[in-house]
Here is the input.
Amino acid sequence: MNGETVQFTFDGKRYTARAGQTLAAALLDNGVAVVARSFKYHRPRGIMAAGVEEPSALVTVGEGGRAEPNTRATDVFVYQGLVARSQNAWPSLAFDVGAVNGLVARLIPSGFYYKTFFGPPKRWMVYERFIRKAAGLGPAPQQADPDAFDHRAAFCDLLVVGAGPAGLAAALGAVQARQRVVLVEQDRLAGGALLREDLRIDGAAGAEWAQDAVARIVAGGGRVLLRATATGYWDGNLVSVVERLAEPGQAPSRADAPVQRLWKVRAGRVILATGAIERPLAFGGNDRPGVMLAQAVRHYVRRHGVVPGRRAVVATSNDDGYRTAFALADAGAQVVAVLDSRAAPAGPLAEQARARFAVLADARPIDTRVRGKRLCAVIAQVGGSEQRFAADLLAMSGGFTPVAHLHKQAGGDLAWDAATQAFVPGAARQAQASIGAAAGGHDLAAILAQGWQAGGGDARMFAVDDPLGMGTPAEAATVPDTIRGKAFVDFQNDVSLGDIDLAWREGYRSVEHLKRYTTLGMGTDQGKTGNMAALGRLAQAQGVDIPQAGLTTFRPPYTPTTLGVFAGAAVRDHAGPVRKLRLHAEHDRQGAAWQPVGYWFRPRSYPQVGESLGEASLREARMVRQSAGIVDVSTLATFEVAGPDAAALLEMACATAIGRLAVGRGRYTVMLREDGMVMDDGTAWRLDEQRYLLTSSTGGADRMAQHLSWLRNVMAPQLKASVVNVQEHYGAVALAGPRAAAVLAGLTGAAAPAHMHCAQGQIAGIDVLLLAASYSGERAFEVYAPGHHMPALWQALHRAVVAAGGGAYGLDAMDHLRVEKGHVVIGAEVDGRVTAADIGLGGMLRKQGGFVGWQALQRPVLATAAGRRHLVGLTVLDGQALPEGAMLVLREGEEPLGHVTTAAPRVAGEGWIGLALLTDGASRHGQELLAWSATRGATVRVRVGDPVFYDRQGARYRD
Amino acid sequence: MMLIHCPHCGPRAQEEFTYERTRDSVVQLDQAPDVAMAALYSRTNPRGEENEIWRHTLGCRGWLELRRDRMSHAIVAVRPLGVQVLP
Here is the structure.
C-alpha cells in the first residue's frame, strides 16, 4: 500500500482514505461503525465481512444515472470523489424511525406479510406502498445509465477461477505445460488468502509471491483478468465473467470506454479455486456493529492497515480464529479473551495463544451489549458460568463453507464432510475440478502442490514458510442449545434462529419452503454467510444430519450483476436494427410522419401545413376513394416459389386452392398454424408455368420465411421446388383509386390488368411486375420493381397520380380504407385465436385438406361456429370516437362479449366505425352494445353489423 | 450454453440455434386428424435421449436433427435435414 490518499463522502460527510482500500476499510479506518440499517427491523449494522459475502453493509455508490444501489461496501475500492450513501434509514442513519420495527419485532415474525396483508386486491395496493417503503434495499436510479458496457468472447484450454494460492499455482502449472490459460479474480489484487496471512512462499512474502506469479503467468502467454467475477457456469464449459473496468459509481477512464465487460469464456477445462467463506456464530446480538468475521478482521489489519477495535474478544470453533488473535495483538490491539467452543483445544496454535492471551475452552458468546450503537461488552458462557468482557470488537469464526456455487451450477454433486460440517464439491459433470479451500483444503503447501498438478505442471514443490502453521481442519460451530435475544443467521434479511424455529413449528419442513417463508438466503448475498447455520438449525429440528435436510439451489449470478452488462452495446440506437425503405428519402422529402413498424420505419401520413395527423389520414383516404393514391408496400413479405412441385409446396402452406390457378392469375389466401388458427394472409400469383409469387404480411415476414423453410426442408424435402425470399430484392408501390387503371395505362401504354390478374410492363423505362389486387376496396395495383429502380418508379407514379388529382397516402389512410372494406389485419383481428371461419373466410378453405392446420380443424370443438368469436362491424351511434381495445358489453362492468380490434373514421361518410371480435357475433347483427374502455374512461354506444361497410358487391374492384 | 456441432459450420454456441420440436411431434399432412393431434399435443417426455429438430438460425439457417440427452444435455449425434445441395 502506498501513501497516496483519496477523498470520499459518506452520507454527505467528507473522509480521507488510503488508495487501495475498500470503502469498508476506509469507513472502519475513519471510525464509522454504523453504515447501514437492517432490512426488516432497521437495526444498526456495521461491517461484518471483507469480501463479496458481506450481508449488512449495503450502500448506494455514485450519483444520478451512475448510482449503484445495494453495493457491498466491502466490494468497492475507494476512488477520488466517491460518493456513498446509506440506505433504508429515515431521516438519518443515527436516528431511524423504522427502528421501531425492532421494538415490535415480536409482532412481525416470519411470514408476517403473508399472515397480515390479505384481502381483496384493492387493499393490497394500499399495503404495497408501505411495504415498499419499509423494504430495505436502495432505490434504483431514475436516470438512464450514462455508461457503456461491452461483451467479449474468449477461448482457452484452461480457465482458472480465483487467484488465491491454489488458483495461482494451477495457472502457473498450466502455463508451464504450454496451455492457453485464462485466470479470473474478483478482487483487484491476486493473492486471495495470501493477502491476509503472514507467511512466505519460495522466500517471498505471500502478497509479493502472488504479484510475481501473475507476472509469470502473463509472461507465459496467459491472460489474467482482475476485478473479474465468474458469475455463472453453463453447459459446454462456458463460464460468464463480469469484469469491472471502473468501480461502482465511477466514471470510465475515457468518455466512451466501457465500465464493465461481460466475457463468455469457453474453456477446455475449468479449475475452480474459489476459496471458502467464513461462517458467523449464532448468538444474541451477533449483528451489532463491532461483531465481525474473524478472517475479515485479519484481512483489514494485514491488507488495509486498519485495526477495527482496540479491545477485542475472539470467539472461535476452530484453529483459524487464533490467527486473528495474533494479527490483532501484533497490530497493537488488546486481545481480552479467546473463547474456544471446543472442550479441549489443542495443537501448536492453541499452545502459542495460551502463552499470550486468556484462552477459554468450552466458551461461547451468548449476548452482547452496546454503548451508543456500538459493541461495548460480550457476555459469554464459559463452562457452566457466565462472564462479561468489555470489548469494542468481537471477531467470530464458526467454521468455513467452501464456495461451491460454480461447481453446482455446472451440474456437479456436493459431498458432506462431517469433520468440517461442510458441503464440499463431489462428482463433477463437466470438465471441471475444484481445488484449494473450495475443495475443503486447509494446508497451504498441500494446496499449492494440488493446484500446480491440477494445472498440468510436472513434479515440483513450493517452499512454504508459515510460522503459525495451518492448524487442524476447521471445525464448524454447532448450533447453541440456548439463545438469548435475536441470534441472526441471515443478517441481510433479518432472519434469526427464532424465525427458523417458528417456521418449523408452523409446519415448514422442506428447506425450499423454509427459504420462501422466512426469506432466508434471498438477499443480494444469497445467504453466503448464514445459510449453513440455518440449515443446521432445520436439521436439528428434524433430528437428521444436514445433508438429509437438503440444500437450496445455487443459481447464477454468483454476485449481483448490473443489468447494463447483459445488454452490452445493444442499447439505444443499437438495441435493434433500423430498417429503412428504399424510398425513405422520397417519403422524407414529401413530409412523411414516420411510424415504426417492427424494425421498419414507414410513412404514417403526409400532413400538410396546419393539418393534424388525423386530418391528414382522412384527407388521404378520401383522395383514394375519389381519384387515386400511391402507398409504399415494400415491406410486405414476398417469396418466389419455383419448380415442378411449386404448387404442391404452396398448397401445404396455403389453405386455399393454388393448383388450379391459371398463369397470369392471382388469389387471396390464408395460411394456418398447425392448431388450425389463422397465422397469416396474403396473395399467391402464378407468374409462369412453374413460378409463383407469394406475398404475406409485413409483421409476419420472418415467421413466414421460417414456416416455408420448415415445410420445404423438414416436411417435404422430396418436393422439387425452391423458395427464395425476394422481399429485399423488390420494392413495391400500391396504386389505388377510381382513376388508378387510367393512370397505370397512361404510364405503361397498355391496358391495365383485370382484377386479380398479373402482367409485366414498363414504367419510365423500368421493367415492372403488375399485380391487380385491392386492399382499399378501389380498383388497385401493386407495382413491383427491383429495389434500385424504386426512386425513379415512385417519382413517375407520383407525377402521374398528382396529375390525376391524387397523391401519396400513408399507413393510417390505408387502415381507414381497409376497415371500411372489412379486411382483417394480422395482429389486430387475426390475433392467433381465430379460425378462417371466425373471420368469414371458412368457405375459401380446401375441403379435402392437405394443408397445415386442416387436421386441427377437424376437432369436434371446431365443428360448430356457435360460442366462438366472429368478425363483425360496429357503427358508432352517439357520434363519439370509438376506442380501440374497448370491451363490448351489454352494461358497464359486465363480462365482456368481445372487443374492438380496430376503429376508424368513415372515409365514405361521417362518424366512426370499427371491426370487432364478438362471441356469436354472426347472430348479433342489429344488436346494440356498449364499447366500454375502463382504461380510457370512455363508453360508446355501437350497433353490430356486417364487417363490410363499403361496396359490399365488390363492384369498384372491377372496371 | 451447449456447444452444437453444426455439420455445415462446425462447433457453434447454442445461442445461434433455435429449438423447433421433438422429431416425433412432426406431423405429416396425410396423417389422420386424431393421429396428428395426438402427436402434437400428447407428447412423450422421455427422461434421457430424444431426437430433436433445431435450426441454425443465426448461422447457415440449416435444419438439424439432434439426438440429445435431456438430463445431461449431452448431444449424442447431429445430422443435417432437408435439401443437401453440396455433397
In short: Residues 8 and 14 of chain A are 6 Å apart (CA to CA).
